[in-house]
Amino acid sequence: MQNFNPISASDILAWEPGPVPWLWDKFIPRGSLFLLAGFTKVGKSTITYPLAVSISQGRPFLGFDTVKSGVLILAVEEQWRDVQARLKRFNMRADDLLSVHCGLLKNDPQTLELIKNYILHQQISLTLVDTLSMFWSVRDENDNAQVIQQAKPLLDLARSTQCAIGLVTHTSKGGGDQGRSIRGASSLLGIVDQALILEMRQGGGKNQRILKTLGRYSETPPELLIELKGDQWRCLGTGAEAYQEDQLEHLIGCLTKQPQPVTWIVKASELSEKQVRNSLGLLMERGEILKSGSGRKGNPYLFQLK
């Protein structure tokens, strides 16, 4: 079968692609190949499984909508008791559109054909491979040729079935910006449509994580601050919003019932005057602090806790 089919400039301009067919709004489109990466024990499975359950039930995840769809988890390095316990923890129901294969699999044509047939027959829209290192046969993760050889069939599987294929993988201990921490040579990041990178939050609570994103979609937030409360993940905001909240909390911690001028607050908080004035304005809008004074020479504005 020949796939050569060039399109003219006029046809390209006339084509209306329509909206992105999001499976998890702003993060995972149908038919995409994506990574969910994180360092050992940072919580990759703890976020992968509730994501799978949310999509199988059509519930929002981290505040973003999902489309109720069939989900397949390839738990290639897990034991059944651990898989069951995790799914129960995150409220899987007997009638959920979710199935699991538990046990070793090989990334070879025969296995991929079996997976493809299952995806099509069961109308699966999300398949998660947990973890990639136990599924593919790459001996040298820094060898781009080996990585492409193993990753390309997974991309073809996603495109041919319109099922989003998620590869749960590891990041290196040294870290790095712009996806450089992801193990699997630069070609792995290059071949996927989206990378979701889970990191510990420096200075944050032990259950807080930063979810960073790299990919082809401008709609996707570059990062989210998330927190696990009990058995539920919640989004605390984007990175910028989370930083702003940290500033506000820090400033409230510096204020007292005694009215103080901006100059005193700047010194006490060790923030810039611009940061202090912006934060004071937000705290005033929220009604969390009081302001007195006229703002004139000899009678400056003073701020205090309620």
CATH architecture of the largest domain: 3-Layer(aba) Sandwich
> What is the domain total for the residues?
2
The side-by-side strand order for the widest beta sheet comes to 5-4-6-7-3-8-9-10-11
- The geometry reads as elongated
The CATH topology of the largest domain comes to: Rossmann fold
* Proportion of helical residues: 25-40%
CATH level-four homologous superfamily name of the largest domain: P-loop containing nucleotide triphosphate hydrolases
Structural class: alpha/beta
The level 1 CATH classification of the largest domain is Alpha Beta
State the end-to-end CA separation: 74 Å
N-to-C SSE string, H for helix and E for strand:
HEEEHEHEHEHEHEEEEHHHEE
| Major beta sheet summary | 9 strands, mixed
Entry summary:
By secondary structure, this protein is an alpha/beta fold.
Search tags:
35% helix; 306 residues; alpha/beta; two-stranded antiparallel ribbon; nine-stranded mixed beta sheet; Rossmann fold; Arc Repressor Mutant, subunit A; 2 domains; elongated
Write up what this structure looks like.
With 306 residues, the chain is α/β, with parallel strands linked by helices. The chain folds into 2 domains: 20-238, Rossmann fold; 255-305, Arc Repressor Mutant, subunit A. Helices cover 35% and strands 24% of the residues. The chain is built from 9 helices and 13 strands. Strands 5-4-6-7-3-8-9-10-11 form a 9-stranded mixed β-sheet, with helices on both faces. It has a two-stranded antiparallel ribbon with strand order 1-2. Helix 4 (109-122) packs parallel to helix 5 (144-161). It is elongated. The model has no long low-confidence stretch (mean pLDDT 91).
